[in-house]
Amino acid sequence: MQSEWQRRKDAQNRRSRERLLQRLPQPFPKPVLDRALRRPFIPPTPRLAINSYWSGHPLRAERLARALARSSGAPAGWRWRLGEEHDSGLPATFRTPPTPYRESAYSLGPGACCICGQPIYRFGWHSDLWQTGINKNAVWHAACVVAWEFWNAPNDQARLLRRLQSRRCGASGRRLRKDAQVDHRIPLFQVWQDYRDRPWPDLLAYWGLPNLQVINRDVHIEKSAQETRQRRLDRQISAEPA
Fold first, then answer.
1. pTM exceeding the 0.70 threshold for the entire prediction
2. Dihedral angle at the C-alpha atoms of 181, 188, 163, 53, nearest 10 degrees?
3. Which secondary structure element, helix H or strand E, spans residue 182, and what is its range?
């Protein structure tokens, strides 16, 4: 016998499904619609369906964001710098991915994504499927929102990354334990120190899947200790007189 909560949920989903299908423009990406209709709570609008799709596919969103950034390239004269984010858009730390189009000096304004620099279309989509032109009210692609969250908080996707690694430690090859942690293979301080002059779209990969691994906590502690020793040695060498 159905509970009252289940009956209300089913009724809500029937209303949401009807509302979604009534508002659905043609064409509409089939994978997005298929996922929306399988959700425990069906999103009632096309925009929510698209947001739900990218939230459920963070690695796909991350790859797309980097590909879109590669299509844009860095603005002329841009270089990776740190500063005060609240007034310039510059990242305050090297741990934040460099995104030139978020900086006030290179912002393209509404209608262009502040992450990848490409035009934004209806529902935050990255191509003009509906021939309605650029969405002048938007500043993010739906996919780039998810990619930005992934780059800044990869630990939130630890379960997905563990599965990609067949639950094996990315450093030792041993079985991943419950205390395993997400790690950047090339640490971000080293990216800032040694690689910051690389082309901008290539830099984003250091925050993305190509540079991420899940490793056991004891391995992570040892790796971090080695990195700390190396940083100390580098500082000592740089402080020595020529």
1. yes
2. 120
3. strand 181-184
